Please model this.
Amino acid sequence: MYVGVVLIVGGWAVLSGSPALVVYGAVLAFAFHARVTLYEEPWLARNFPDDWRRYSADVPRWLPRIRRPTRRTID
Model:
């Protein structure tokens, strides 16, 4: 959701050519990053320590990893 909002504001800034919207998008990106790293992630780590450790090791914070598909075997 956070990435989507920043992308919408960024697209709006490009289409309108507004420097103020570029600044607004940068402020939003910083504020979202601060909220996630200072509030949401510590809360998750406290309330779900084992699950959060596994999840955060497997899932990147903002942008997806590009990986080659792996074959899964059926047991």
User: Anything to note?
Assistant: The chain has a mean pLDDT of 89. The two ends are 36 Å apart (CA to CA).
